[in-house]
Amino acid sequence: MEEVHMGLPLVVGQEVPNVDLTIRVDGDFVQLNTQEQFADKRVILFGLPGAFTPTCSTQQLPGFEEKFSEFQEKGIDEIYCVSVNDTFVMNAWFELKGIVNVKPLADGNGEFTHKIGAECKKSNVGFGYRSWRYAVVLNDGLVESVFIEEGFQDNIESDPYEASSPENVLSNL
Question: CB of 16 within 8 A of CB of 43?
Answer without folding.
Answer: no
